[in-house]
Fold each of these.
Amino acid sequence: MENSYDLSLISSAFGLVLQLALPLLAITLLGALILGIIQTATQIQDDSIKFTGKFIAGFCALMLFGLSTLRTLTAYAVRLWGDVQWYQ
């Protein structure tokens, strides 16, 4: 294998990880921020509220972006396994 091909595989894999993880992380972070503001305003400091809010935000993000994430990951796997001649 050539080093340039190896580097392109690694860089595309890192790019894919960022592309797939950022929507879930962003929505979960936004949900945690909103819940933190609400908890500060109401002075209710319960850890189960934080966990439940993050869980619901993450679940909603997966419901919104799950299908496109799966399609992107499948297209990457097909492209990766389609280049089998490089592995010989």
Amino acid sequence: SGAGGAAVVGRPAPVSNAIDPSLGWNADRLGVKQRLALYGAPDGRRHAFVRFPDHRAVIIILTSSDDVDARGIAERIGERLLGKGR
């Protein structure tokens, strides 16, 4: 922290891995990697917000179409990003 408790420019803010399931977040794993996810609409359609905290990576899928499986798209991107099973 800088003077007066202000954040120092150039340093990332602390990351909290605490998940509040009452807010809709799911904590699980993709392969061996921790995954924190929030999906909107039944079956994850329309939007997906997926975070891999150990890799400081986030996948966000937004769509207005009921025909798009945002959860499935986010999972496939995560597998490619992290390497399946790594």
